[in-house]
Design a protein that fits this description.
CATH class: Alpha Beta
Shape: globular
CATH topology: Collagenase (Catalytic Domain)
Radius of gyration: 16 Å
Number of domains: 1
Number of strands: 4
Strand content: 15-25%
Low-confidence stretches: none
Structural class: alpha/beta
Mean pLDDT: 90
Helix content: 40-55%
CATH architecture: 3-Layer(aba) Sandwich
Length: 178
Protein backbone atom coordinates (compact mmCIF):
# COMPACT_ATOMS: atom_id res chain seq x y z
CA UNK A 1 0.00 0.00 0.00
CA UNK A 2 1.57 3.26 -1.12
CA UNK A 3 -1.13 5.59 0.12
CA UNK A 4 -0.30 8.65 2.13
CA UNK A 5 -2.22 8.43 5.40
CA UNK A 6 -1.50 11.38 7.66
CA UNK A 7 -2.11 11.15 11.38
CA UNK A 8 -2.64 14.12 13.66
CA UNK A 9 -2.33 13.24 17.35
CA UNK A 10 -3.63 15.81 19.82
CA UNK A 11 -2.61 15.48 23.47
CA UNK A 12 -5.57 16.96 25.32
CA UNK A 13 -4.51 15.65 28.74
CA UNK A 14 -0.93 15.37 30.02
CA UNK A 15 -1.73 12.05 31.74
CA UNK A 16 -1.08 10.47 28.34
CA UNK A 17 2.52 11.64 28.62
CA UNK A 18 3.06 11.34 32.36
CA UNK A 19 1.21 8.19 33.40
CA UNK A 20 2.04 5.63 30.72
CA UNK A 21 5.23 3.67 30.11
CA UNK A 22 5.05 3.92 26.31
CA UNK A 23 5.18 6.66 23.70
CA UNK A 24 1.49 7.18 22.98
CA UNK A 25 2.12 9.21 19.83
CA UNK A 26 4.46 6.57 18.38
CA UNK A 27 1.98 3.80 19.21
CA UNK A 28 -0.82 5.75 17.48
CA UNK A 29 1.33 5.96 14.34
CA UNK A 30 2.27 2.27 14.42
CA UNK A 31 -1.32 1.14 15.00
CA UNK A 32 -2.58 3.44 12.23
CA UNK A 33 0.00 2.10 9.76
CA UNK A 34 -0.70 -1.54 10.53
CA UNK A 35 -4.49 -1.16 10.63
CA UNK A 36 -4.73 0.63 7.29
CA UNK A 37 -2.28 -1.80 5.65
CA UNK A 38 -4.16 -4.80 7.00
CA UNK A 39 -7.55 -3.48 5.88
CA UNK A 40 -6.20 -2.62 2.44
CA UNK A 41 -4.53 -6.01 2.00
CA UNK A 42 -7.60 -7.90 3.19
CA UNK A 43 -10.39 -5.89 1.57
CA UNK A 44 -8.95 -3.48 -1.02
CA UNK A 45 -11.06 -0.92 0.88
CA UNK A 46 -12.46 1.63 -1.54
CA UNK A 47 -11.48 4.74 0.45
CA UNK A 48 -7.89 3.56 0.72
CA UNK A 49 -7.96 2.43 -2.90
CA UNK A 50 -9.36 5.68 -4.33
CA UNK A 51 -8.21 8.52 -2.09
CA UNK A 52 -5.02 10.35 -3.00
CA UNK A 53 -4.26 10.99 0.64
CA UNK A 54 -6.14 10.43 3.86
CA UNK A 55 -6.07 12.39 7.11
CA UNK A 56 -7.12 10.94 10.45
CA UNK A 57 -6.97 12.44 13.93
CA UNK A 58 -6.54 10.91 17.36
CA UNK A 59 -7.26 12.98 20.45
CA UNK A 60 -5.81 11.66 23.70
CA UNK A 61 -8.22 13.18 26.17
CA UNK A 62 -9.93 12.46 29.49
CA UNK A 63 -13.22 11.35 31.01
CA UNK A 64 -14.55 14.89 31.39
CA UNK A 65 -14.22 15.73 27.70
CA UNK A 66 -15.38 12.33 26.46
CA UNK A 67 -18.36 12.49 28.85
CA UNK A 68 -19.44 15.79 27.24
CA UNK A 69 -19.05 14.40 23.73
CA UNK A 70 -20.80 11.14 24.60
CA UNK A 71 -23.76 13.08 26.03
CA UNK A 72 -23.92 15.49 23.10
CA UNK A 73 -23.52 13.04 20.23
CA UNK A 74 -24.73 9.71 21.60
CA UNK A 75 -27.22 10.80 24.29
CA UNK A 76 -25.29 8.83 26.92
CA UNK A 77 -24.58 10.80 30.11
CA UNK A 78 -21.33 9.09 31.05
CA UNK A 79 -17.77 8.80 29.84
CA UNK A 80 -16.75 5.94 27.59
CA UNK A 81 -13.35 4.57 26.59
CA UNK A 82 -13.30 5.64 22.94
CA UNK A 83 -15.43 7.63 20.54
CA UNK A 84 -15.02 7.53 16.79
CA UNK A 85 -16.40 10.25 14.57
CA UNK A 86 -16.24 8.81 11.06
CA UNK A 87 -16.94 10.66 7.84
CA UNK A 88 -17.27 7.44 5.83
CA UNK A 89 -21.01 7.97 5.23
CA UNK A 90 -20.64 11.67 4.46
CA UNK A 91 -21.38 12.66 0.85
CA UNK A 92 -18.67 15.36 1.06
CA UNK A 93 -16.05 12.70 1.73
CA UNK A 94 -17.05 10.78 -1.39
CA UNK A 95 -17.29 13.97 -3.47
CA UNK A 96 -13.71 14.74 -2.40
CA UNK A 97 -12.53 11.25 -3.26
CA UNK A 98 -14.22 11.22 -6.65
CA UNK A 99 -12.94 14.69 -7.55
CA UNK A 100 -9.39 13.67 -6.62
CA UNK A 101 -9.00 16.24 -3.85
CA UNK A 102 -5.61 16.03 -2.23
CA UNK A 103 -6.76 15.41 1.35
CA UNK A 104 -9.65 13.26 2.53
CA UNK A 105 -10.64 13.84 6.16
CA UNK A 106 -11.63 10.35 7.32
CA UNK A 107 -12.51 11.23 10.92
CA UNK A 108 -11.38 11.45 14.52
CA UNK A 109 -10.87 9.06 17.42
CA UNK A 110 -11.05 10.37 20.99
CA UNK A 111 -9.84 8.31 23.95
CA UNK A 112 -10.57 8.90 27.65
CA UNK A 113 -7.52 8.22 29.80
CA UNK A 114 -9.26 7.45 33.10
CA UNK A 115 -11.82 5.05 31.64
CA UNK A 116 -9.19 3.28 29.54
CA UNK A 117 -6.89 2.93 32.56
CA UNK A 118 -9.70 1.66 34.82
CA UNK A 119 -10.89 -0.88 32.24
CA UNK A 120 -7.35 -2.16 31.71
CA UNK A 121 -7.01 -2.70 35.46
CA UNK A 122 -10.42 -4.44 35.67
CA UNK A 123 -9.49 -6.74 32.76
CA UNK A 124 -6.09 -7.49 34.27
CA UNK A 125 -4.22 -6.22 31.22
CA UNK A 126 -1.76 -3.39 30.65
CA UNK A 127 -2.80 0.09 29.61
CA UNK A 128 -0.71 -0.37 26.45
CA UNK A 129 -2.69 -3.45 25.38
CA UNK A 130 -6.05 -1.78 25.98
CA UNK A 131 -4.90 1.43 24.29
CA UNK A 132 -3.73 -0.50 21.22
CA UNK A 133 -7.01 -2.41 21.06
CA UNK A 134 -9.14 0.73 21.30
CA UNK A 135 -7.07 2.45 18.62
CA UNK A 136 -7.50 -0.48 16.22
CA UNK A 137 -11.22 -0.50 17.05
CA UNK A 138 -11.46 3.24 16.39
CA UNK A 139 -9.56 3.13 13.10
CA UNK A 140 -11.82 0.32 11.88
CA UNK A 141 -14.86 2.46 12.75
CA UNK A 142 -13.38 5.34 10.72
CA UNK A 143 -13.15 2.93 7.78
CA UNK A 144 -16.84 2.02 8.13
CA UNK A 145 -16.69 -1.23 10.07
CA UNK A 146 -19.11 -1.68 12.95
CA UNK A 147 -20.53 -4.22 15.34
CA UNK A 148 -24.25 -3.50 15.14
CA UNK A 149 -25.15 -7.12 14.44
CA UNK A 150 -23.43 -10.45 15.09
CA UNK A 151 -22.15 -10.87 11.54
CA UNK A 152 -20.57 -7.39 11.44
CA UNK A 153 -19.20 -7.85 14.96
CA UNK A 154 -17.55 -11.13 13.97
CA UNK A 155 -15.86 -9.47 10.99
CA UNK A 156 -14.70 -6.44 12.96
CA UNK A 157 -13.53 -8.43 15.98
CA UNK A 158 -11.69 -10.89 13.74
CA UNK A 159 -9.81 -8.01 12.12
CA UNK A 160 -8.99 -6.54 15.53
CA UNK A 161 -7.63 -9.88 16.74
CA UNK A 162 -5.48 -10.33 13.61
CA UNK A 163 -4.08 -6.79 13.74
CA UNK A 164 -3.33 -6.94 17.47
CA UNK A 165 -1.57 -10.28 17.00
CA UNK A 166 1.00 -8.37 14.91
CA UNK A 167 1.79 -6.40 18.08
CA UNK A 168 1.96 -9.58 20.18
CA UNK A 169 -1.24 -8.58 21.94
CA UNK A 170 -3.60 -11.37 22.94
CA UNK A 171 -7.15 -11.66 21.68
CA UNK A 172 -9.08 -9.00 23.63
CA UNK A 173 -12.28 -11.03 23.21
CA UNK A 174 -10.93 -14.34 24.56
CA UNK A 175 -12.94 -14.02 27.78
CA UNK A 176 -16.12 -13.63 25.70
CA UNK A 177 -15.67 -17.05 24.08
CA UNK A 178 -17.51 -20.08 25.38
Amino acid sequence: MNKKIELDVIIDDDKWLECVDFDAIKVCQEIKDLTFSFVYDETKHEVIELANSINVSVCLSNDEEVHKLNREFRGMDKPTNVLSFANIDDDELWDGIESGEKDVELGEIILAFETLQREAFEKGIGVYQHFAHLLVHGFLHLLGFDHEDDKDADVMEGMEIDILREFSIENPYKDDEI
